[in-house]
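Title: Comparing notes on inverse folding

I've been comparing how different people in this forum approach sequence design from structure. To keep things fair, I'm posting one structure and asking everyone to reply with a full sequence. Here's the target:
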C-alpha cells in the first residue's frame, strides 16, 4: 500500500525543521529563502508538486535531508523528480545542471523563483562587495543558461 503523500503543510514543516539550524549568506534563517521560493512558485502559477519541490529544492544539496530519505519519502514521483533535478551536485558544471533543470518538466519554474529570490537586490545589498559581485555574476550566468531574461 502506498502511503498518503505529505500535504504541502507537512512538506513546509519538514523543510523548516530540516533547515532549522541553517542560515543564508546574510545570516538570516534559511527557511525564509524556502518560503520566498515557494511563494514565488505559487505566484508564477506553480502546481502543488512544484510548490513542494520549492520547499525541498535545497534539502539534499545542503545535506539537510538525504537522497535515501527522498527515495522513500511520501512525496509524489513528480515532486521527487523535481527535487532531484534542482539538486546541484558538488563539482557539477553549471551547464550540466542547467540541462537537467531544462529536461525536467516543471523544474524551470521552480529554479526561476529560486534565482529571483537569490538575486533580490535587498538580499544582495547586505553582503560584502566581493560576495555580492560573485553571486550576481553566478545568478546571471545561470539565468542565461536557462534562457531566462536577465
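Reply #1:
Here's my take.
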Amino acid at each position: 500500500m502506498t502511503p498518503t503523500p505529505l500535504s504541502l503543510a507537512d512538506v513546509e514543516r519538514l523543510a523548516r525543521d530540516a533547515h532549522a539550524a541553517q542560515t543564508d549568506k546574510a545570516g538570516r534563517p534559511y527557511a525564509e529563502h524556502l518560503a520566498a521560493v515557494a511563494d514565488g512558485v505559487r505566484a508564477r502559477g506553480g502546481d502543488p508538486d512544484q510548490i513542494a519541490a520549492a520547499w525541498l529544492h535545497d534539502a539534499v544539496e545542503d545535506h539537510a535531508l538525504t537522497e535515501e530519505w527522498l527515495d522513500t519519502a511520501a512525496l509524489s514521483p513528480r515532486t521527487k523528480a523535481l527535487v532531484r533535478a534542482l539538486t546541484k551536485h558538488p563539482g557539477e558544471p553549471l551547464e550540466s545542471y542547467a540541462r537537467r533543470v531544462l529536461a525536467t518538466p516543471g523544474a524551470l519554474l521552480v529554479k526561476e523563483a529560486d534565482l529571483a529570490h537569490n538575486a533580490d537586490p535587498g538580499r544582495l545589498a547586505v553582503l560584502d562587495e566581493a560576495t555580492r559581485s560573485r553571486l550576481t555574476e553566478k545568478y546571471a550566468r545561470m539565468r542565461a543558461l536557462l534562457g531566462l531574461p536577465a
